[in-house]
Write a structure and sequence with these properties.
Blueprint: H1 3-20, H2 27-65, H3 68-73, H4 76-87, H5 96-110, H6 113-132, H7 137-148, H8 152-160, H9 164-173, H10 184-205
Helix pairs in contact: 2-6, 4-5, 4-6, 7-9, 7-10, 9-10
């Protein structure tokens, strides 16, 4: 549906109706006008609800981007991932402030405000969960070596328990390079390979 064309048609008809309103007569015209008015009233209610919903989504999104959680956990990498997942487009800004503006604009263009808010809420919740685990660098390094000592099925069970955010933190702490496109399965394979290598190096040095 081309709503711009609909708006233009309604505007054109409205102008003509206003110009000739005092001269229009006839039962058929009156009946058609009553039917049209009923449908227009229903359409206006739906339009009001839609606009309110969009504004609500935009407000929540902007509130999230200014929240304390965003100050701690929002990164350009996260915005890139979100924009790609939600709209299939690339984030071009390299400055965080500009990236936030671009993210909001692109999401608005695609009408994905609600989904963007949900994405950020989940990402912040995951980051807070990881932080609350209280794992420092040393404990993450010990965990990494421990994973390298597990049998394949045991390793798979341990990885299944971890969120993507936890796995990323484990990988980052132990020097594993990956991108924002690296999914959990690929990251798990990288962790498996380098953890086993770490165990081998420790054994060789002993």
């Amino acid at each position: 549906m081309n709503y711009a064309e609909l708006a233009a048609t309604l505007h054109h008809v409205g102008e003509r109706l206003s110009k000739h309103a005092g001269k229009i007569e006839g039962e058929s015209m009156g009946q058609s006008a009553r039917i049209l008015l009923t449908h227009l009233s229903k359409f206006e209610e739906l339009l009001d609800g839609y606009i309110a919903s969009r504004k609500s989504g935009e407000l929540l999104l902007e509130t999230l981007l200014r929240s304390p959680a965003a100050k701690r956990h929002l990164t350009i990498r996260l915005l890139k991932e979100g924009l790609r997942n939600l709209t299939g487009k690339r984030l071009r800004s390299t400055d965080l402030r500009a990236a936030k503006r671009e993210f909001v604009e692109r999401v608005h263009e695609a009408g994905r405000q609600d989904e963007a808010s949900e994405f950020l809420q989940e990402a912040f919740a995951e980051a807070i969960h990881v932080d609350s685990g209280g794992k420092d660098k040393a404990s993450l390094q010990r965990e990494f070596v421990g994973l390298g000592q597990l049998a394949e099925d045991e390793f798979a069970q341990e990885i299944q328990k971890k969120s993507l955010g936890e796995l990323r933190r484990l990988a980052e702490t132990n020097g594993i390079r990956f991108t924002d496109k690296t999914n959990k399965q690929r990251l798990a394979a990288l962790v498996r390979r380098y953890a086993q290598r770490a165990v081998f190096n420790i054994s060789a040095a002993a």
